[in-house]
Amino acid sequence: xxxxxxxxxxxxxxxxxxxxxxxxxxxxxxxxxxPLMHTLVEAGADIIxxxxxxxxxxxxxxxxxxxxxxALAKGVSLRQVLGMVANFRADNNETPVVLMGYANPIEAxxxxxxxxxxxxAGVDGVxxxxxxxxxxxxxxxxxxxxxxxxxxxxxPTSNDERIALVAQLASGYVYYVSLKGVTGSAxxxxxxxxxxxxxxxxxxxxxxxxxxxxxxxxTAGAIARISDAVVVGSRIIEEIEKSSKDDVCANVxxxxxxxRRGVDEATKV
Amino acid sequence: MTxxxxxxxxxxxxxxxxxxxxxxxxLIPALAELKDAYAAAQRDPQFVAExxxxxxxxxxxxxxxxxxxxxxxxxxxxxxxxxxxxxNHTGAHKVNNCIGQAILARRMGKKRVIAETGAGQHGVAxxxxxxxxxxxxxxxxxxxxxxRQAANVYRxxxxxxxxxxxxxxxxxxxxxLNEAMRDWVTNISSTFYIIGTVAGPHPYPMxxxxxxxxxxxxxxxxxxxxxxxxxxxxxxxxxxxxxAMGIFYPYIPHEDVRLIGVEAAGEGIATxxxxxxxTAGHPGVLHGNRTYLLQDENGQIIETHSISAGLDYPGVGxxxxxxxxxxxxxxxxxxxxxxxxxxxxxxxxxxxxxxLESSHAIAHALKLAPTLPKDKILLVNLSGRGDKDMxxxxxxxxxTL
Lengths: 269, 401
What we know:
The complex is a heterodimer. Chain A is built from 12 helices and 9 strands. By secondary structure, chain A is α/β, with parallel strands linked by helices. Chain A has a single domain, classed as Alpha-Beta Barrel (TIM Barrel). The relative contact order of chain A is 0.17. The model of chain B has no long low-confidence stretch (mean pLDDT about 95).
């Protein structure tokens, strides 16, 4: 059983929902990524989504693009990101790590070489934003051959046919993008999201995480009630952006703790 | 070389290993809607008739082919003919595609069009057709380019467009493209994204090629009439590659005609300051398609350089990637200095001021012609006029306007 699947099964047995924070590897500096990952876990993260910086993050909003730019300015490469995961694994062998990024850095390394290196580093899942399922058949095979879960996006605009395509390839969980637009967008309609989740969950057969537009404990709680996992990205990046190197871990800890409280209170039986 | 009939792309937009649809799930339905709408429009005689009417009466097509005799004499060898896309309304081939996409947008009920632009030529062409059809128009342009191309920014505003300066990344064309994609994904139901070149996710590379192929479709009978035969080579500059695809595509089955794309070598390929994706790049994924890209060893897209803003792009249309690999087309490079020299030569010998982009194609013709006998024929796509480049050329010559 994959670490991601085991995490969801454990949470389900406890009647809890997963909290999945996103940070960009190397932001604000490569030396802070592993400490930040441990901070996320201490404050209540169940799974970590670790962004691989890319020069042209087309599907992201300005906040995450700036995080990518800060990391690239420090020369952070995919190879180094894998090194960070390996370092994290030295002290934490439980929390699943999902790499999230764009196709080109992976293709530059070579998909098979990447898959083997990611497995060796202790990565559990990979989400390539610009690999829709129809371009991902070989990629998903390469991931699963190396015990990595290929994670896919679904959107409010995805029809039954597309949900079925994702269902054929996805393992671990699927990431439901809760609104039209890019990461960090403002509006989120919880009821509209709630209307889609049951059919998606039934079709894909893996847990459904929801992200895009989740900024506070109340929204996190509302989303937790209707899904299996709450994904938060831009809100955390903003906190990193306005913190100094000395207080960034403490500030991120406070944000995650608050989101965790929102998720747990909303789903308490 | 293939003797199979050429019928690319496949149903999912692939040209061999290139092309495809590499976008986030949020954009997929919009691309599917576009693909269906375009397929229906292509089959609709009314759509085809309106496109042709607009090209004739608004753009001024067909554009002539002109035998540049004095230029040919100066080169001393093969005869050079020019396909005069510089004579189109707005001064370049870009408008052909913008009209096609704008009337498709109207057919789809979209009242707002957006575009990305580098130097501003595609932005001006988009703003022009938006004014013509009464549509709201927003143009994304890197803030660095806004600063360098003030005249085109003003032109777009005169035409009623809103120009949005993009501050992210390198603040140039590729960042403008990222920002336009973000606008599109956020405003999908109301908005049509008019991409200016044969790149991006399927169906854009195919659709833009189809709209631009009016260039080659006119050239074939025109050459027959003028010379009684087809040229020995067709030469066009390649940035994203839309003017080159427009003239190459109808010539693909004419296997005796060499197809030569000319990329920007900038300050020289060895300096790293260039925009020659096919010549010096490696396959990868950017802006929705797989193609040759200028990237570093970690797969990050690198900044490009060319004296001509229209060629200053780190990728290239996927069909060019395929034509290169399959051997049907060949790709050469021309430096900034060579392009500038060709610019001056054409001005002086023919009284035609070419765009700096097109000057790359002229420069290659001037290199190739002397190696060939006088009865050989080179057809150069003169994709645009050079009025927009006065400032750049004067500056390079040490003159302040």
